[in-house]
From TrEMBL:
Its main location: periplasm. Pfam families: COX2 (PF00116), nos_propeller (PF18764). Gene3D superfamilies: Cupredoxins - blue copper proteins (2.60.40.420), YVTN repeat-like/Quinoprotein amine dehydrogenase (2.130.10.10). Residues 552-662 form the Cytochrome oxidase subunit II copper A binding domain. Keywords: Copper, Metal-binding, Oxidoreductase, Periplasm, Signal. It comes from Thiolapillus brandeum. It is found in: Periplasm. Its EC number is 1.7.2.4. Transmembrane segments: none annotated. The keyword Chaperone does not apply. GO terms for cellular component: membrane; periplasmic space. Residues 1-26 form the signal peptide. This is Nitrous-oxide reductase.
Amino acid sequence: MKIRKPMLASLIALTVGLTAGGQAWSQDTLKDVMKKRGLTEKDILAAAKTYTPTGGRDEYLAFSSGGQSGQVIVYGVPSMRILKYIGVFTPEPWQGYGFDDESKEVLAQGRIEGKDIVYGDTHHPAFSETKGDYNGKYLFINDKANPRIAVIDLKDFETKQIVVNPLFRSEHGGAFVTPNTEYVMEATQYAHPYKGSGFVPLSDFNEKYRGGLTYWKFNMEKGKIEPENSFTFELPPYSQDLSDAGKGPTYGWGFTNSFCSERYVGGIEKGRPPFEAGCSSKDTDFMHLTNWKKASELVKAGKIGKKVNGMTLISMKEAVANNLLYLIPEPKSPHGVDVVPTGDKIVVSGKLDSHTWVYDWKKIQKVMKNKKFEGKDPYGIPIIALKDALDKSVAVGLGPLHTQFDSKKCVAYTSIYVDSMITKWDYCKGKVLDQLPIHYNVGHLVAMEGDSVSPDGKYLIALNKLAIDRFNPVGPLHPQNHQLIDISGDKMQLLYDMPVPLGEPHYVVAIKADKLKPEIRYRSGWNSRKDERSPWKTRAGREKIERTCDANGKCTVNVYGTAIRSHLTPEIIEVTEGDTVSIHVTNLERAEDEVHGYAMYGHNVQLSIEPGKTASTTFVADKAGVYPYYCTEFCSALHLEMQGYLLVQPKGYKAKSGGLKAGTNYTEADYKKQVKTNIDTQAVINQVVGFITSHNYKDFPTVVALVEDATDQLGFAKEAKAKAEAAAAKKDWNNAMLWANQWWQYQVKTADLGLRAKTYLEEHGAKKVK
Ligand code: CUK
Ligand code: CUA
């Protein structure tokens, strides 16, 4: 017999929220809607290119810097639907990031000189790469304000590691990765004395202030940056800006530009011309070329570098002596530096210029080989003359910043800040192909996989600095505006405006969605931040509370707890005032998306416990009192009942005799009524089970997982049933009724899972096997 959902739903009372009146489906035609909303045919076409029907998936996922929020924003392309905020340098309560003990350890790695820094100014996300192509394994992002790099694992979209640069006090040119993720680049921005050198007056600027470029070693297998195997190039105090890693013919090299090679120090309040005047007075600044490949070999061989604050520092002298470091003049106040997909050309833009400048690697190499330099800078670094390195310059518009690449050969897109537009141009022929106005003042831009060796083209997103009049006003602070552009044809077409209300995202990287294989659940009892079994892993029925005291009478209570629809175990935790309390909760669920939360009054406790995860919270119960706790995720019909009490008893407290006096008295009739409901419910479950087992469900891993979960729930139901019957045998109708009710609770969950499995089979064309 075929079971219809409504019948099942009413029987097992899963009708919450389903009774809201039917949709008044509009009778309007497309024409009517266009007229009512003032839409043109072009609008409708744009809408059709981005609209993603319910249940639909995006072809690309974009990972956006969260700017000053210190987070990463994940959204789909072309739908522009936001999917996730990843807590990176900043606590993120929903995910328990910065609240559970495990993630607090990650944030603590980002402490600077002993201080917690709980914000970040994130700028440049970068995917891990294999042979210059995104491999979908890791994402890196930098913090400009406090030179740090974070590692996000794309298995679960969680931040796993933060490294603090032991020398820098400012950075900008990170994170950029080398083609096999051998290294993650991080360059300074504002010159400063290296950490540990104490106070150095500005009068010693030229001699003691420094820039730098760190190559952080990445271990792809472990998913970890290895500071001990990383090294840093000492660089002149030129205000290094962005970087990019070479590929193909430029493999082994890194490129980093700068914008204040004047080495100017302002002081407007003392009557000196300001930074902005002194830092843009020369016509050119310098691009730095660093040979990381050769440097790493020399460091490994112990030939160069010395450890400073645990970091291998390569002095400018050593770098010059070993031909590891060169300079090439760049146009006025350069900003972006981007290596073309084929790796043989380098595109640089000048913020105060109207050209992009294309450098030719063959020409550069020739100069290096013949040692025909223009001269040396004050630090002895050889300078390659601009005319000896330049391939061409192309007039693209005023204030070009960043460049991305198309799947079509030689086609590039450059963001034009001052003119508020995107210029599509050909870097081989030096020709502008198309220009599109955007709204307004674009910073970075991103094409699909647009900085890899094999860009996909298709879409471009302009990351605009100003939204001004594009959205409903929300006060003086406006959202940022990400504009989606169709670049599949000859002419660019603007499709969609997406407000981003979480900081100023400088850069975004976008990856083909099918390269990502995120997990659905953790292995049971998992510490997700360390990627290992948690010592606090707790299995069903093994929940316990342990209290241990040291010689000074300081006591610690460890609660080994679990969460499963719809109860937290334990439900009552008794401790004594002054105890340190550690509550560890393992989510026993295996079903997709069955997350439980854990929040408690007055202790800043908020956990997110995804299926399989074990999360912990530790605090001192320093005030006697009653502290309710509960699950913060609406996980089931009886989610509100997922609750408990932490009882912090005063020292020396003695409980009153007579036990717990709370609740209602139940009768034999109540018990029998409940049992009848349970028997009916079981009949429904049997039918669902019959449907599933009569199909090839084992061919569907999702269904197998659901069935496993359902079998567990049914096992729990059996235990509760036994307890109910034992109590009934003793005519203890209160306990009999309550256990019978618990038995039914497990049945409801079983049915819920079974129904999901059945729907899945129906929707995925399962076949009958008998
Ligand atoms: S930066 Cu913001 S527009 Cu930090 Cu890459 Cu160029
Ligand atoms: Cu678990 Cu709500």
